[in-house]
Amino acid sequence: MNGKRGKFNKKGKKIYKRGYTENGTTYMWEVTQEIERWYNEGTEKKNNCNDGSCTLSNQDNNKLINSDLKIQEGLDWAEDLAITEAELRSDHNTSYKVKYPHPWEYGKKLRAKNTEESLEYMDCTELVCRYLNKIEWSEDIKIINSSEFKTYATKHPDKLMINNDSPKKGDIFAWNGHAGIVKSYNSTTKKVTTIESISEQSYSWHEGIKFDGVVIWTYDKDKNHLRDNKKKGKIIQYYTPLKHYSK
């Protein structure tokens, strides 16, 4: 071909690699394929080791990784106590299955018991502590207030890991004054669906709906309800329960 280098078609025109020269052609499916390839290669990996056999898999925020904890059973239990966001939006006067909080005079006496009477009322940390017992992270129902979770996680990182960047299904969260359970987290939309026992009415993100018990609700991570307020000492921490109480 007159000393020319490269590939040519039957008409003698040079064939360019797609996307590599100004005369080349790049198709959308090729762009999509390349983006997906790099995305999959860059996705955070998690080392799964079982009985000496280790593999790498893409991390999923809603994939249960605590194999010796009964995370799903605990979440199912908490969901059974809750009314849903859809129910509350449809009817602001929806009756709560579990109300907030225990009457003051006997609440502390009941918060670590397993009786029908003890489940009629529940505050935020009691719900979380009962959940931790249900997943068998604790052998009994502990009494931990919202500010003590950070202290515990700092002293026992092998039992309760601080996980602020990417909360997972089954995690808990707390700040000085409140605590709740992460039902799910979408790392793309940054939406956190929580299960909480909560008593609030005036905040704009609840759209004037009165909260007065255990409810499932979806929020934006790092905004409104789940946003730090350093002036008021509100620093949100997410925690991943790691070990069965027997370990």
How is this structure best described in words?
This protein is an alpha+beta fold and 247 residues long. It folds into two domains: 36 residues, no CATH class; 171 residues. The chain has six helices and ten strands, in the order E-E-H-E-E-H-H-H-H-H-E-E-E-E-E-E. The strands form three sheets. Strands 5-10-6-7-8-9 form a six-stranded antiparallel β-sheet, covered by helices on one side. A two-stranded antiparallel ribbon has the order 1-2. It has a two-stranded antiparallel sheet with strand order 3-4. A hairpin with a 2-residue loop joins strand 3 and strand 4. Helix 2 packs antiparallel against helix 5. The longest helix is centred in the first third of the chain and has 15 residues. The chain starts with 6 loop residues before the first strand and ends in a 6-residue tail after the last strand. The relative contact order is 0.14. About 9% of the residues have low confidence. InterPro entries: Papain-like_cys_pep_sf. It comes from Aquimarina muelleri. This is Peptidase C51 domain-containing protein.
What is this entry, summarized?
With 247 residues, this protein is an alpha+beta fold.
Mean pLDDT: 80
Taking pLDDT < 50 over at least 5 consecutive residues as the criterion, the unreliable ranges are: 18-23, 43-59
Strand content: 15-25%
The coarse overall form would be globular
- Tell me the major beta sheet: 6 strands, antiparallel
Specify the structural class. alpha+beta
